[in-house]
Amino acid sequence: MNSARDMRKTIHLIAAARPNFMKIAPLWHALKKEDWADARIIHTGQHYDINMSDAFFKDFKLPEPHLHLGVGSGTHAEQTGRVMISYEKILIQERPDLVVVVGDVNSTMAATVAASKLGFPVAHLEAGLRSFDRTMPEEINRVVTDSLADILWTPSPDGDANLLREGVLRQKIVRVGNIMIDSLEMLRPIIEKERVFRKYDLTTGKFGVVTLHRPSNVDTMDALKMICKALVNASTKLPLVFPVHPRTMKNLSANGLMSFMNQAPDFKPIEPLSYIPFMNLVLNSSMVITDSGGLQGETTYLGIPCITLRQNTEWPITIEQGTNRLCRPEELEASLQRVIEGDFCKGRIPELWDAKTAFRISESIHAFLNS
Ligand code: UD1
């Protein structure tokens, strides 16, 4: 007779890039407790620097990835193609019962296409988000992934509505909430104990955190220059700390903008940080200036004002219910001044952003595998 262990279902958790690692962590820990689940982390290798990858595994107490595809960087087609070619081999060997993909990076879409074509069911965590801007590579990844996935876990009602409008069957959609809140609450006691902000001579509640990596902001010289100028000017009103993403660092250095930023006394470009020190900065900051998707949700949850340097967002709920505000670079100084004067929406926490999302996903997987 087979033991319960032999009968366990193989679930692949596809992790590729920095924001993915934090999203699979609560789910991996939830599934580890279940005797019916054998969750295996497949790292595609899209992000590979220590600060972009290994440090996140350490912070979230994740095991070494069960398999590492080592695809690295490249053009969109190169990166996507390499993930598909490598992951197809793993699918054939391992024959998983379910493939879980998260977010909207190239590896998310690549793993989905490879699995769907071989007939393996795919579940997408953070389904239904739309910026309606097809110039963003992430939007293409979202649309393709959602059109193929068998289970679509959404974080908010707008996600459900977008999917229904695109013809996704209602029974495939499960609203589970925002997994990033689980990630944050999981490590919050440790994050709160840190004093990272002191290392950068910052005072609680008296500085802003900046992150930038979107191609639309950092890949063209004109946009990047305008943003840097606006940030340096803004830092005269409020000290700013800026953990610089590798993509942004490459472009800042190539365009001679690093030396310009280093001259500003209250503007502090630093190395990218892992989750715990980074969130310690966010928790102690008085505002965040970003183009990241995840930070728009985290700041809404924490009630910290967020200025998003983009013309659109796939997280509209953070504007409707939270603390987020979209802004063009030329408006940055004025926006920042308004926040300093206390003029920002205090917001509320959206429904199901309650740190129980991983539990709801685990239940949804169990129901799907037993249906
Ligand atoms: C990717 C995702 C984006 C996500 C972001 C989080 C896509 C299309 N984009 O963007 O949605 O918000 O991750 O960071 O999937 N690099 C390093 N070290 C690394 C990783 C990258 O130096 O560990 C460099 C690469 O050389 C590359 C650049 O950074 O030139 C961009 O990396 P890539 O993974 O292609 O895209 P991101 O900009 O990180």
- The secondary-structure element order is EHEHEHEHEHEHEHHEHHEHHEHEHEHEHH
Amount of helix? 40-55%
Shape: globular
Question: Biggest sheet: strands, sense, closure?
Answer: 7 strands, parallel
Average pLDDT over all residues? 95
The structure class reads alpha/beta
Task: Return Rg in Å.
Answer: 20 Å
Q: Which runs of at least 5 residues are low in confidence (pLDDT < 50)?
A: none
Q: Count helical runs.
A: 17
From the structure provided, what is the oligomeric state, counting identical versus distinct chains?
single chain
Strand tally is: 13
Major beta sheet, strand line-up = 3-2-1-4-5-6-7
Q: What share of the residues does DSSP label as strand, in percent?
A: 5-15%
